[in-house]
Specification:
The chain has 496 residues and is α/β, with parallel strands linked by helices. The chain has 19 helices and 14 strands. The structure holds glutamic acid (GLU).
Length: 496
């Protein structure tokens, strides 16, 4: 029987969750669900200096909004100190780690003198015996230094070998020349483990089967691999996800690209020092669309189909569809996904969203008309933030007319045309969309008017602009009195 699939999303609470981080979480989640495994969240907060208040909450709230349910956790590394202490002792006793006492100043001097000679200072088997550590010093001197309270770090004793040969599921063999790997600090002088150490210890002790993370962690793989070997632990499989590239030009997508191109970079709003930056949620994107868009950023479902629910994705996902080259971020594409998911959204969700907005704005409405209104606005709705705007004409007469549109439409005859429309509306016995359309068509024909122009004038009167839901459907819904009122109002306006 093969091992149970257990994956983890391991963000550091050093700032809000970026859309790229959410993609990493999503791929972990999909991989876990597809393989009936566990999706674990681990907050990697060993670096207290970089801790940013509120970021853990932002990360967890973003996952919740996106629908990624956590099976285990969130664990916090800051609560697992005893485990790291135990494991560092173990590594020291295995002879794969050592205490080092070199001060910052001393290391700085070494660095400088190497640079002068055109080289780089690397703390490893080349020179560790010339430096101040438990390998070069006598036992009792080491003991004294440890007890002196002046502080020390624990370093990894990088083995002397040619290449560290690792495997990544997407890239195959990845080799790192061992002579450039330095003896990384595993335990800091403040008594905390470093990212690398805590990360590997946790992945092992949490029985993580697959490490799925961003490509920016690939350079750390050599060290992580060696740590597994030093402990003689079975390694997980590693999958380093392709980078997300800027919408145009070279390089990785950054937070600044969002400002530059005007798209959100966070799943949900991030508030820091009283200032809020809106996320996809606040900009009117559905979580389903955001997740669908992110899933296709670096992963290929193997067919032309693009629209998937989270549930469908969990059934389809396979690491085989992951690309190893970077995926370009296209903010227009996510807008398209949003429209597609609004078309698929449940009627209840859209009705509730509209009612919430109406209640908040204090607009009075007839609840029995809400379902019909949703049917009429849904096909054109792009962002949930536009739900009120798209349906305003059902509740209120236009507050203003789109002047440019009106200028193009109107002529000396417009007043008369509108008066004629008003009479037709008033005399209509069955005030239905189809009836009204036929009546206006007849009217245009009999009066030698351009039907399009008549429609434009009516739309301007009813909606205030030349776009929106089906005109006669709107008119049927607002009913006779209101329709006549609006047509008369535009006629009056033109007659001023
Ligand atoms: N804490 C790392 C980060 O913030 C996690 C890297 C990993 O997944 O191993 O991205």
């Amino acid at each position: 029987m093969s091992k149970r699939v257990r994956v983890r999303f391991a963000p550091s609470p050093t700032g809000p969750l970026h859309i790229g981080g959410l993609r990493t979480a999503l791929f972990n989640y999909l991989f876990a669900k597809k393989n009936n495994g566990d999706f674990i969240v681990r907050i990697e907060d060993t670096d207290q200096k970089r801790y940013v208040e509120g970021s853990e909450k932002h990360i967890l709230d973003s996952l919740e909004w996106s629908g990624l349910k956590i099976d285990e956790g969130p664990y916090r590394q800051s609560e697992r100190d005893a485990l790291y202490k135990e494991k560092i002792e173990e590594l020291l006793s295995l002879g794969h780690a050592y205490y080092a006492f070199d001060s910052k100043e001393e290391l700085g001097l070494h660095r400088k003198s190497h640079e002068k000679k055109g080289g780089t200072f690397i703390y490893n088997y080349h020179n560790r015996l010339k430096l101040k550590n438990s390998l070069s010093l006598e036992k009792d001197e080491t003991k004294k230094l440890i007890e002196s309270g002046k502080g020390y770090v624990v370093r990894f004793k990088t083995p002397k070998k040619d290449d560290v040969v690792c495997f990544d599921v997407l890239r195959g063999r990845v080799a790192f020349p061992a002579n450039v790997l330095d003896d990384k600090v595993l335990y800091k002088s403040d008594g905390n483990p470093t990212y690398h150490f805590a990360n590997v210890v946790d992945d092992f002790s949490m029985k993580i089967s697959h490490v799925i993370r961003g490509e920016e962690w690939l350079p750390s793989l050599g060290l992580h691999w060696l740590l597994y070997e030093a402990f003689d632990w079975e390694k997980p499989k590693f999958i380093h996800l392709p980078l997300i590239l800027k919408p145009v030009g070279k390089g990785k997508l950054s937070k600044r690209d969002g400002d530059r191109f005007g798209f959100p970079v966070y799943p949900i709003k991030w508030v820091s020092q009283g200032e809020g930056i809106e996320g996809y949620r606040e900009k009117g994107y559905l979580p389903e669309a955001t997740v669908n868009f992110l899933a296709l950023l670096g992963w290929n479902p193997g067919s032309e189909k693009e629209i998937f629910s989270l549930n469908e994705l969990t059934k389809l996902f396979s690491a085989k569809g992951l690309n190893s080259s970077g995926a370009r971020f296209d903010p227009e594409k996510i807008a398209w996904f949003n429209q597609q998911h609004i078309l698929l959204a449940s009627r209840e969700f859209l009705e509730n969203s509209l009612q919430e907005e109406l209640n908040e704005s204090g607009i009075r409405y007839d609840i029995s008309k809400i379902p019909k209104i949703i049917d009429l606005i849904r096909p054109r709705l792009d962002l949930m933030t536009n739900v009120l705007r798209a349906s305003a004409c059902f509740f209120e007469a236009p507050k203003a007319y789109d002047q440019r549109g009106l200028d193009k439409l109107k002529d000396n005859n417009s007043f008369k045309v509108l008066k004629g429309v008003s009479v037709i509306f008033q005399n209509s016995s069955e005030f239905s969309s189809a009836n009204l359309r036929a009546a206006i068509q007849d009217y245009a024909k009999a009066s030698f008017l351009n039907f399009g122009t008549v429609l434009g004038l009516i739309r301007m009167a009813v909606v205030g602009e030349l776009s929106g839901a089906g005109l006669f459907d709107i008119i049927e819904l607002i009913e006779k009195t209101e329709a006549v009122k609006r047509v008369e109002a535009l006629a009056d306006y033109l007659n001023r």
